[in-house]
Amino acid sequence: MNLLSRAALACLLASSIVPAGRAETAAPVKVRILAINDFHGNLKPPPSGIRISDPADPTRTTLVPAGGAEHMATLVKKLSEGRANTIFVAAGDLIGASPFLSAMFHDEPTVESLSMMGLAVASVGNHEFDEGKDELLRMQNGGCHPKDGCQGPHPFRGAGFHYLAASTIVKDTGKTVFPPYEIRTFEGIPVAFIGLTLRGTSDIISPAASAGLDFRDEADTVNALVPELRAKGVQAIVVLIHEGGWPTGGYNECPGISGPIVDIVKKLDRAVDLVISGHTHQAYVCTIDGRLVTSGDKFGTLVTAIDLTLDSATRDVTSAKADNVIVNTTLPKDAEQTALIEAYDKVASPIANRPAGVLTETLSRMPNASGESALGDVIADAQLAATAAADKGAAVIAMTNPGGIRTDLTRHENGSPVTYAEVFASQPFRNQLVTVTLTGADIKAALEQQWHDPKRPRILQVSRGFSYAFDPAKPDGGRIEAASITLNGAPIDPAASYRVTINNYLALGGDNFTAFKAGRDPLTGRFDDEVLFGYLADRSPLAPPPRDRITNRAP
Predict the structure, then answer these.
(1) What is the pTM of this model?
(2) Which pLDDT tens digit goes with each residue over 17-42?
(3) pLDDT digits (tens, 9 = 90+) for 417-429
(4) Residues 104 and 201 in one domain
(5) Which of 26, 107, 255, 304 could form a disulfide with 249 if both were Cys (CB 3.0 to 4.6 A apart)?
């Protein structure tokens, strides 16, 4: 072989080796993200399951039993099998407004359960702040509850995952409560996960819980972080946001979506590749402004499986697709989760299983056209009954916020009474009742504030004997017909004083009902869940009252 032939052979060998190395480097990287949102401590399958289109008749829906930590853990493992690059994330409200099994222990079992499943990062939701900033820090770091101590079957070690809070600022320090983002690397490619809650969090948590915190604009917060992430070599950006929308279509569809998430996504820097959302308790897989946006229902009924393709050269996302997978209760139970639940259940059961009363019908939390629900009426009646005596508050009216009513109270087919755990699930915040003196004018002002957000009015549930009418088409301050506000048939006098029972959340102006802050001579009473429990026991069997206290004048 002459010199020229040897040179040619050397070039050929070099060309056959180098491209192979480049091809390996340039191979796309596949990443699977598993996501949940709004778990709310539902360690056991929620009675509501998930309602989906009936496969046999698309014009109808069918209820699928779904959820539960034992089944979710199995599904997470199944969806991770054979995938080296998998990460499990969440978009807020993992805790708070939880069933008794979790709430009794200040949601320690839920944090422990999700940590065992391998949850990596989670944005904070509004309910993460239900017990305040310091308690949320305890959820992250561990330790005993400052008042109730260590109640669980073993010491609480804190979360094995990391909370992220890019838009939640401690006013005194100007720093975020938790890190704004976390960068994970998959086969050498960094991916940033930014976590944040909704800007309006302070409007929907108690004023005490939001004290000292600033909740900033979602899109502005994310966009300000993009240059910082770019400087760290990050091209792939995922946003975990506790805010959402209202879709049409099935749980894996999105023929139309409205709500805050639409405007937020449209404002986001084009560097953001994927948005995992929550808060509205909806299920959807959407494309908004050219980007994939997902949400996984509520209470652990779905796990969203998201598949990303990353370009090895640009290190950016080249494709993204998602599938909401039902956490079917036919899935095998994870043994570790079963052991965890049984350990906490053993401590909680003696309290949780106490019988209340028998229901003749299910007490639904779903409102009628006037915003009035059967369960809301019963709760308001229970609170009035508990505070009507002169030494208990001398109340003549009771009102409660609809957001504090979380689940139906379901009639048992075998005629057995509902339990304390079921009562607690419907009133999980353990708000204390407060009876205050308000003028008739104050009462009307509070009723007008039900339309602080005209798109989503918060209709207060009111006690027997109190009634009024509204016209939602009227302007702010004029929706309530003054002459229609009556107590036991007599018109409310704007100048007269009335003793009114509300909960401590409303008394502090929660849900923007600032008119209640005018209340005088407060008398604090019992917890709302205990009041409802006693009311059901005293009036068993209990039938739902007619829903005729509030009248909607809309044509």
Answers:
(1) 0.87
(2) 444 444 445 799 999 999 999 999 99
(3) 999 999 999 999 9
(4) yes
(5) 255
Q: Are residues 332 and 366 in the same domain?
A: no
Q: Residues 435-443: what's their mean pLDDT?
A: 98
- By CB atoms closer than 10 A (0-12, 13-18, 19+), residue 536 is buried
Give the Å distances, CA to CA, from 538 to 357, 379, 431, 541. 8, 14, 21, 9
Q: Which of 77, 203, 191, 199 is nearest to 512 (CA)?
A: 203
Contact of 167 with 128, CB cutoff 8 Å: no
Residue 427 DSSP code:
S
Using the predicted structure, report yes or no on whether residue 438 has a pLDDT greater than 80.
yes
pLDDT confidence of residue 25: 54
Distance CA 439, CA 520 (A): 10
Q: Domain range for residue 382?
A: 353-552
What token pair was written down for 530?
A: 């205990």
Q: How crowded is residue 291: how many other Cβ atoms within 10 Å of its Cβ?
A: 18
> How many Å apart are CA 465 and CA 550, to the nearest integer?
11
- Among 504, 528, 526, 527, CA closest to 517: 504
* Residues whose CB is less than 8 angstroms from the CB of residue 89 and which lie 6 or more positions away in sequence, other chains included: 33, 34, 35, 119, 120, 121, 122, 193, 238, 240, 276
Q: What is the DSSP letter of 157?
A: -
In the predicted structure, residue 3 carries a pLDDT above the cut 50: no
- Contact assessment for residue 28 and residue 318, using Cβ atoms and an 8 Å cutoff: yes
305 shares its domain with 260: yes
In our burial notation (b when 16+ CB lie closer than 10 A, e otherwise), range 59-71 reads eeeeebbbbbbbb
Domains of the chain: total: 2
Burial class (CB in 10 A: 0-12, 13-18, 19+), 147: exposed
Whether residue 139 is contained in a domain is answered as yes
**Residue 15, pLDDT above cutoff 50:** no
Q: Is the pLDDT of residue 5 over 60?
A: no
pLDDT of the residue at 143: 97
CA distances from 89 to 27, 184, 235, 382 (A): 25, 12, 19, 40
